[in-house]
Amino acid sequence: MPSVDPAHVAIIMDGNGRWAERRGKSRIFGHRKGVEAVRNVVDACGRRGIPYLTLYAFSSENWNRPREEVRLLTELLFTTLESEALQLHENGIRLRVIGDLSPFGEKIDRTVREVQELTRANKNLNLTVAVNYGGRWDIANACREIAVAVKNRSCSLSEITEQAVAGRLSTADLPEPDLFIRTGGEIRVSNFLLWQIAYSELFFIDTLWPEFDESCLDEALKSYRRRQRRFGKSGKGL
Ligand code: FPP
Question: Long-range contacts for 234-238 (Cβ within 8 Å, ≥24 apart)?
Fold first, then answer.
């Protein structure tokens, strides 16, 4: 049984829209409330000494939502990242953004690079936010990089190993998630960190993201501590 808490927690934050609709509010109201839940969980992970937290904020598939929701959601995301940058830095949090930022334009790209640069040396918590991210996109990018390396002869066929792929994913400098949480009642992984969660413990909770608080995180951690992680071994002698 794992005696320690997970080093890396990854979360699909689902349920903002339903939370808002149940209150007769617009879906963006739910996403705004979701940002408060993000703050609480970042603080809670920091207090528990969990060094890596990765959040799925906008998936490659989220473009299929109504255009106005996409506009407001992406605006909320980037304005929050910008306005929270100093606070993150003061709290010793290192921010990384993973995903394809090319559709968002030069200004967003610069802002993200600046926040990443500002917080690069911070050690308290590694916060990674996935924006316009898809697990298949990540793996395809790694394959493309390997193909280029093979073509220019800096990589041979026998060097195409699991490590070679993992080292070219957008999470190359992060450990794999130990605990994968999805809120909002759906039991699926929705193209998040597909390669990286091969051996993660999965935890699904009905709570809608805006209501996910410290006690929900503790429930997930409690469940994690009860798991026997075998990584394909028999379980004897662990
Ligand atoms: C899923 O709920 C949630 C999202 C698609 C967006 C999550 C983004 C945030 C909470 C903002 C995060 C901000 C930062 C800075 C990390 P949904 O709309 O799919 O809900 P539903 O399933 O009830 O429709």
Answer: none
How many other β-carbons are positioned within 10 Å of the β-carbon of residue 127? 24
Kindly report the CATH number assigned to the domain that includes residue 186: 3.40.1180.10
Indicate the average pLDDT of the chain.
Answer: 95
* Under 8 Å between Cβ of 53 and 7: no
Q: Whose CA is nearest to atom 10 of ligand 1?
A: 34
Given pLDDT bands bounded at 50, 70 and 90, which one contains residue 234?
confident
Question: For residue 238, what pLDDT band results from cuts at 50, 70 and 90?
Answer: low
Q: Rounded to the nearest whole angstrom, what is the distance from the C-alpha of residue 136 to the centroid of ligand 1?
A: 20
Q: Which residue has the tokens 């929705």?
A: 190
Side-chain half-sphere CA neighbours of 153 within 13 A: 0
156 belongs to a structural domain: no
The number of folded domains in the chain is 1
150 within a domain of the structure (yes/no): no
